[in-house]
Amino acid sequence: MAKRNTRQQQSTGHSASRRKSSRNSSQAQARRDSKLPPVEGPEEFRLQKFLASAGLGSRRQCEELIRTGRITVDGMPVENPGINVDPKKQKIELDGENLKPQKLKYFVLNKPKGVLCTNNDPQGRTRVIDLFSREKVRLFPVGRLDDQSEGLLIVTNDGDLAHQLAHPRYRIYRTYRIQVAGFPTSEDLQRLRDGIFFQEGKFRVISVKRAGKMGKSSFLEIVLGEGHNREVRRLFAKIGHKVMALERTAFGPIKLAKLKRGQYRELTAVELNELREMLVRNRSTPTKKRPRPDYKTGKPVSEKRSIKKSITKSSRSSQENKSSTPGKKKGPKIYVFK
């Protein structure tokens, strides 16, 4: 009877500890989720962000405008660009004129070659936003395509959504059709899947498949999980095949389809909902952190440390064996790292 009571107490204790562990893990997950930016924008905005959404310029320009004292909130002048405002409850004015945020716009553009993604070019070259001169809102592209690349580019004035779409945490896959010089081997393509180390970290493709040949060049379709600077061109340069042409054909669920170069259209409600659902889904399934690479060896730091540790242990053991043999003097310890 006493043993049965002891077993019941032990099982009760185990179940309580399991409940406590489950509660702690759920609380930890809730804390992690709370640190992530919301997919939907909050009702309150930083003042300079609100002014930018009202079409008064970039956030930096709006900060300078606030410091001039020309902005009032509920009739009181403010000079702090970092305060939070609620446009639905508060009256925000510039020189006595009531300000309202612009309607959020979402476009997909087929970017031609030679068009820049930057909003500021001192040389006066054609920019992406120059193709949207008919739209009376301040727009900016999500991510970048270099001037020699073409294809699908999302353009919007929704800063929160743009940040999330471009952030690696949300894993929005990008699909490209490229033409490269020569004919990459199966081993070359496997190297791309396994990943290649650069100064910024390890770049790799999610998938790569052949899509045809032309003369002494070949076509490939590749999918990337992140959007590093000139990532595709740098990856193929590492395996010895220059990228001759690059076109982005998809960004997450958004497809380029039959949109002609230089033309754009608005995202449909269905496409926008698919993007938002993908952001929520990917946010709830975080990825594992990859080990930081060592820039000299190209190997992850954790792997390098383990190699050093094993070499150190073997060196110590060999030195101890030498010192234990009679007739030999004990010399200094020497560690060799190849």
Report on the architecture of this protein.
The strands form four sheets. Strands 7, 8, 9, 10, 13, 14, 15, 16 and 17 form a nine-stranded mixed beta sheet that branches. Among the domains are: 45-98, RNA-binding S4 domain (Structural Genomics Hypothetical 15.5 Kd Protein In mrcA-pckA Intergenic Region, Chain A), CATH 3.10.290.10; 106-283, 2-Layer Sandwich (Pseudouridine synthase), CATH 3.30.2350. The chain has helices at 2-35, 47-53, 59-67, 159-166, 186-194, 231-238, 269-283, 301-324; strands at 45-46, 71-73, 76-77, 84-85, 92-94, 97-98, 106-111, 140-141, 150-156, 174-181, 196-198, 201-203, 207-214, 217-224, 243-251, 254-255, 264-266. The chain has 338 residues and is an alpha+beta fold.
Can you give me a brief rundown of this structure?
The protein has helices at 2-35, 47-53, 59-67, 159-166, 186-194, 231-238, 269-283, 301-324, and strands at 45-46, 71-73, 76-77, 84-85, 92-94, 97-98, 106-111, 140-141, 150-156, 174-181, 196-198, 201-203, 207-214, 217-224, 243-251, 254-255, 264-266. It has 338 residues and is of the alpha+beta class.
